[in-house]
Amino acid sequence: MKKWTRWQDYTVIAAGAYAALSVLWTTQTGSSTAIMVTLGLLLVIGGAVNLAMPGMPAAEWAQAIVAVALLLAPWLGGFTSATGAAWSAWIPGAVALVVTALAIKPSTEEYRHHHVASTP
């Protein structure tokens, strides 16, 4: 697996950037701004880490957890009534979760290929 080539990680970066920047054009309520910016930036960082260092399943799983948090954020943060903000969390969260799920198996296989001890 080559660095800087996985489309899944670029998609996660785009989803995270959209979530973080969507606070500029959607109506926010309560803590939605902080939640959206924080989780969006965490997805951007996670995607960049996975691009730079492919084959780290732990980073993929952490990214999946952030994607789930973004997907659940409107309910947990109490901003489901702010539909623009809510949809700007649900859609990027779902996209990030799906593409991360697609990347976990290849990442795990890459890790095993390079880190499994040879048996005698």
Shape: elongated
Largest pleated sheet: none
Q: What's the number of structural domains?
A: 1
Query: What's the total helix number?
Result: 4
Give the CA-CA distance, first to last residue.
27 Å
Mean pLDDT: 90
The stretches of 5 or more residues where confidence is low (pLDDT under 50) are none
| Structural class assignment | mainly alpha
Taken in chain order, the helices and strands follow as HHHH
Number of strands: 0
Strand content: under 5%
Helical content (DSSP H or I, runs of 4+)? over 70%
Radius of gyration: 16 Å
Can you summarize this structure?
With 120 residues, the protein is mainly alpha-helical. The protein contains 4 helices and no strands. It is 74% helix and 0% strand.
What does this protein look like?
With 120 residues, the protein is mainly alpha-helical. The protein has one domain. Helices cover 74% and strands 0% of the residues. The protein contains 4 helices and no strands. It is elongated and about 50 Å long. Residues 7-100 form the SPW repeat-containing integral membrane domain. InterPro entries: SPW.
Chart the SSEs and their pairings.
Layout: H1 7-21, H2 32-52, H3 57-76, H4 83-115
Notable traits:
120 residues; mainly alpha; elongated
